[in-house]
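Researcher: Let's continue the batch. This sequence belongs to Iron ABC transporter permease, and it's 554 residues. Same format as the previous ones, please.
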Amino acid sequence: MDGPHLLRRAGSPAAAAALLALLPLAFLAVFFVLPLLGMLGRGFVTDGALDLSGVGDVLGRSRTARVLAFTAGISTLATAVTLALGVPTAYVLHRLRVPGAGLLRALVVMPFVMPTVVVGVLWRGLLASSGPLGGLGLDGSWVAILLAMVFFNVAVVVRTVGAAWDGLDPRTAQAAAALGASPGHVLRTVTLPALRPAVVSAASVVFLFCSTAFGVVLTLGGLRYATVETEIYLLTTSLLDLQGAAVLSVLQLVVVVTLLVLSERTRSRARGVRRRSRASVPRVPVARRHLPALVVTAVAVLLVLAPLVGGVVRSLRRGSTWTLANYAQLTSEVPGTGASAWHALGTSWRIAVDAALLALVLGLLVALAVTRRPRSRRGRSVLATLDATFMLPLGVSAVTIGFGFLITLDRPPLDLRSTPLLVPVAQAMVALPLVVRTIAPVLRDVDRRQGEAAATLGASPLRAWATVELPVLWRPLLAAVGFALAVSLGEFGATAFLARPDEPTLPVLVYTLMGRPGAEAQGGAMAAAVLLAAVTVAVMGLVERLRLSSVGAF
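Model: Same format as before. Here are the structure tokens for Iron ABC transporter permease:
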């Protein structure tokens, strides 16, 4: 009996969704919930009994207070700056008739898929005393962390708000303009209120990503600045304070769940204001009144280009001399690792392919499940909860999950520590929510009446699905594979725990080189970072050619 027929026999859309989600839920339970509980158990269970006596001690530490305050403060400020840059940029790139808008959209979205450790390395190279902007004195400051967070997340706002802008029904704004409202008045009273759910959703996701920007803070913050994510890493690896790490992990999980609930509610409202017609709305010619938005867009583009150009320049210099020695060094074995940068890139690529394919299969099943259309309010609530559940890996500390893998998947029947499976599985867990967010919006826009008409004409459920939905899905599936590849290539948090010392991935190797003194190690790290950035950007460039607005939108 084929799958679609089983789904029809299942009865309600909610029951069909449950069948589709069984395998992904099992995967989530084994490779997310179990490691998370294992990590929390090490921190809260003593001699087989629950022990919460240390919670007050952990929360009462002055360092914990500083870490929480810095995490909340820097994430809030970065979110505000990102919105201030991202919303006008989304307007310019999605609504105005700007030459090269497609290229600029690809450029702006590029930082989002870059490895966080590479983002940190590029900004460090730009702001270091010997870098192009070294005279500003920002190296090692909180401003450097802020700039890197904005650089990394402006794509989320541009893609999310831009996709919502493209989806608005233009007739409301046209009616307001026909009644004499000025373009500014239409923007304030019609357009922005309709976009508010998308803006709130983007803001919650940006705050989530800023508060969990592990590689960026670890590279730029050093010992002076720490967020909850880097503090969990320090407590786990250096101080072996598992209770302190567990307490912070629980706090982080509470914040993540709150933000995901907020994001889901606002996304549901955003779907309610999307226009029914998918016909494109004509772009608006550039006029003088658009100058402020154009200036903000120029600033956003400059913010994206500066560290990229600075990183390339630094990779071509060693000391005060222009040279290709840093790139020639990529083929040489890095002492203490047994691997060269090229070998590490090959390792990263093999792992990323496995992770992307696994994330694609699971993500497609989840997307098919959460886009069912139950009639009851309870059914819709169940699907919304299911959708939010698979977003949890985005916000829970990768360090927590990585360490949880080591302490829970170490005995039969799940003794996986000695196998090469752990790293691609961990990376698939990170990529899974992004795959769902790429495919699900496309499935929601499919007119199910076409499938019903095909079934009425005698087509089997499988034939109807292949005729109606599959032709619409092939581009999102390709985009999801590319997106998952790019994200997996740069995953650092969990991989830092799980990668074998003699088989490091390229992000791990870059971080190793950055921690070593000397111009040779620093130049090699910069060249390796540029190489990794180039590969991820090339992958996302191919994805961008598919012109799928759901990629990178939340």
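Researcher: Any comment?
Model: The longest helix spans residues 62-95.
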